[in-house]
């Protein structure tokens, strides 16, 4: 049996130099880091666009540009800190939702199809895909309860563990998605580009004038 099909959402920052991927600097310049962020976002949005869904939402910090694909509803991020912004995003969307970040450009439509199918399974209240750095790259809720993020420390080595514990506190049955490596450092960027060599992200990394980047 299955339950309601989820909306698909991407939470992201507009790829503006000096505001995104600052941990890539150095070796990248702010402009190169922004180009990598833009490419990662382009790959992520393309994967979402290729995934069957009745609704696609971009939860954006910053101003949208012509890089937003057709068919995406854009809503602003609201709140102090990522936990509040996630809570507001789920509340604003107001229906079952699978939300992913912009830092895993290796994500594919097949992964998202499998994730939405899992979230629709009877007895599954939430799904979570952990990231190698201790956070998570995806989270889905059948009931968009903002309390799911209350007290969860973000951008920490134990964020994923704390998020899972919070969902358990609320009595939610959580199913696991495959872990992915997200892009924070240049080493992450090289590794992720190697996993998705045909991606826009990999092409952007090859254009970065840095020996480690060119090795990708």
Gist?
The protein is an alpha/beta fold and 216 residues long. The chain has 7 helices and 7 strands.
Low-confidence stretches: none
The overall average pLDDT, rounded, is: 94
Say what oligomer this is: single chain
CATH architecture title: Alpha-Beta Complex
User: What is the H/E string?
Assistant: EHEEHEHEEHEHHH
CATH class: Alpha Beta
Give the helix proportion (percent range): 25-40%
In total, the number of domains comes to 1
Q: From the helix content, strand content and strand pairing, which structural class follows?
A: alpha/beta
Number of strands: 7
CATH topology: Spore Coat Polysaccharide Biosynthesis Protein SpsA, Chain A
Explained architecture:
This protein is α/β, with parallel strands linked by helices. The chain has one domain (7-214): Spore Coat Polysaccharide Biosynthesis Protein SpsA, Chain A. It is built from seven helices and seven strands; from the N terminus they run E-H-E-E-H-E-H-E-E-H-E-H-H-H. The chain has helices at 30-49, 82-93, 109-119, 159-169, 186-195, 200-206, 211-214; strands at residues 7-13, 56-61, 72-76, 97-100, 126-131, 136-141, 174-180. Strands 3-2-1-4-6-5-7 form a seven-stranded mixed beta sheet, with helices on both faces.
């Amino acid at each position: 049996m299955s339950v309601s099909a989820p909306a698909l959402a991407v939470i992201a920052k507009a790829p503006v130099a000096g505001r995104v991927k600052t941990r890539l600097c150095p070796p990248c310049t702010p402009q190169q880091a922004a180009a990598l962020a833009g490419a990662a976002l382009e790959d992520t949005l393309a994967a979402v666009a290729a995934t069957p869904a009745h609704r696609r939402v971009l939860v954006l910090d910053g101003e949208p540009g012509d890089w937003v694909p057709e068919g995406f509803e854009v809503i602003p991020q609201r709140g102090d800190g990522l936990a509040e912004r996630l809570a507001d995003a789920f509340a604003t969307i107001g229906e079952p939702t699978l939300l992913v970040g912009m830092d895993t450009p290796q994500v594919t439509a097949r992964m998202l199809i499998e994730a939405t199918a899992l979230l629709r399974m009877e007895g599954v209240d939430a799904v979570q895909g952990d990231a190698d750095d201790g956070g998570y790259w995806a989270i889905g809720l059948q009931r968009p309860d903002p309390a799911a993020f209350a007290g969860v420390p973000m951008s920490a080595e134990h964020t994923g563990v704390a998020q899972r514990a919070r969902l358990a506190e609320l009595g939610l049955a959580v199913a696991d998605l495959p872990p992915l490596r997200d892009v924070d450092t240049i080493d992450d960027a090289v590794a992720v580009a190697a996993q998705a060599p045909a991606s826009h992200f990999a092409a952007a990394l090859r254009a970065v004038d840095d020996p480690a980047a060119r090795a990708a």
